């Protein structure tokens, strides 16, 4: 997945209308080198196409991609190599690494969550808690880690939350207003209690978000719904208790941390003589 406009903005931000004064001073402009993108820690890779496109944007073309997105790699793995003008490689270095590290971090964290609940019927799902302008890429990285995506934007489906319910005057009123104006849209609605869930069942939503319920309450919710629609647990979920939630039978765990709190995957660039 490539966002070339984002790459152009990132490189322009780095130069800010000027030039790389360090490289211009230390590199004559005639040198050619080989540079390897190397994983400094184990993790799951995402953003390879973005990194390659950064290199292409500065005029480099001799690029060898050695690892595909979604691959789980060990520390010291060479992900990609590039041969060409030294100044161009140094100009692209930080922007390419920023994309690889950020997206790889999301993919790596997602894979950790996915492996934590492996063997259950539950899926790890992301949220809209993404970096402005990078949602498509970050949600792509979630998929590379084995997770699944919630709606991409506000028009892709309805999610009726507590503030919508309060504004509309109740769960049923909120649902009916959304359904009236959007007869074919998928509708998910948030509930805080089993009583609210019981009220929602007859409305036949596509999914219900169980907000800040314990695993015990989630298990009761699963029994109450009996497969009539999907259930998603959200709030208070950690890697420590994720399996307990997944084993209740809910369909999804909503994890905002996948995109808003993922540590960067440590990746470096090593130059070597051609």
Instruction: Please give the CATH class of the largest domain.
Output: Alpha Beta
Q: Please give the alpha-carbon distance between the first and last residues.
A: 30 Å
Binned strand content: 15-25%
Secondary structure: number of strands: 12
Major β-sheet strand ordering: 6-11-10-9-8-7
Fold topology:
Blueprint: H1 4-15, H2 21-26, E1 32-39, E2 43-44, H3 48-57, E3 62-65, E4 72-73, E5 78-85, H4 86-116, E6 123-125, H5 135-144, E7 158-160, H6 162-168, H7 171-181, E8 187-191, H8 194-201, E9 207-211, H9 215-225, E10 230-234, H10 242-246, E11 252-254, H11 257-260, E12 267-273
Helix pairs in contact: 1-3, 3-4, 4-5, 6-7, 8-9
Gist of the model:
Belongs to the NadC/ModD family. This protein is an alpha/beta fold.
Task: Report on the architecture of this protein.
This protein is α/β, with parallel strands linked by helices. The protein folds into two domains: 113 residues, Aldehyde Oxidoreductase, domain 3 (Alpha-Beta Complex), CATH 3.90.1170.20; 146 residues, TIM Barrel. It is built from eleven helices and twelve strands. The strands form three sheets. Strands 6-11-10-9-8-7 form a six-stranded parallel sheet. Strands 3-5-1-12 form a four-stranded antiparallel sheet, covered by helices on one side. Strands 2-4 form a two-stranded antiparallel ribbon. Helix 8 links the parallel strand 8 and strand 9. It is elongated. The model has no long low-confidence stretch (mean pLDDT 96). It is an enzyme of class 2 (transferase). InterPro entries: Aldolase_TIM, NadC, NadC/ModD, Nicotinate_pribotase-like_C, Quinolinate_PRibosylTase_N_sf, Quinolinate_PRibosylTrfase_C, Quinolinate_PRibosylTrfase_N. Pathway: Cofactor biosynthesis; NAD(+) biosynthesis; nicotinate D-ribonucleotide from quinolinate: step 1/1. It comes from Candidatus Planktophila versatilis. Belongs to the NadC/ModD family.
């Amino acid at each position: 997945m490539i966002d070339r406009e984002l790459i152009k903005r990132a490189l322009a931000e780095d130069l800010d209308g000027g030039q790389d004064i360090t490289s211009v001073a230390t590199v004559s402009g005639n040198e050619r080198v080989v540079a390897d993108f190397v994983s400094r820690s184990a993790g799951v890779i995402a953003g390879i196409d973005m990194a390659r496109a950064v290199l292409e944007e500065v005029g480099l073309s001799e690029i060898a991609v050695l690892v595909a997105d979604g691959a789980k790699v060990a520390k010291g793995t060479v992900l990609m190599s590039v041969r060409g003008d030294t100044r161009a490689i140094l100009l692209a270095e930080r922007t390419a690494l920023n994309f690889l590290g950020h997206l790889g971090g999301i993919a790596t964290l997602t894979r950790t969550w996915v492996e934590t609940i492996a063997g259950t019927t539950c899926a790890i799902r992301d949220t809209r808690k993404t970096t402005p302008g990078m949602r498509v890429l970050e949600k792509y990285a979630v998929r590379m880690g084995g997770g699944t995506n919630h709606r991409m934007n506000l028009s892709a489906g309805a999610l009726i939350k507590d503030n919508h319910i309060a504004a509309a005057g109740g769960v049923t009123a909120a649902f009916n207003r959304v359904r009236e104006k959007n007869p074919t849209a998928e509708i998910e609605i948030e509930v805080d209690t089993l009583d609210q869930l019981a009220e929602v069942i007859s409305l036949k939503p596509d999914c219900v978000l169980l907000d800040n319920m314990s695993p015990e309450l989630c298990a009761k919710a699963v029994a109450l719904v009996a497969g009539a629609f999907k259930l998603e647990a959200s709030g208070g979920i950690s890697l420590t208790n994720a399996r307990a939630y997944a084993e209740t039978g809910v369909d999804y765990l909503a994890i905002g941390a996948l995109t808003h709190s993922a540590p960067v995957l440590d990746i470096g660039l090593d130059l070597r003589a051609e």
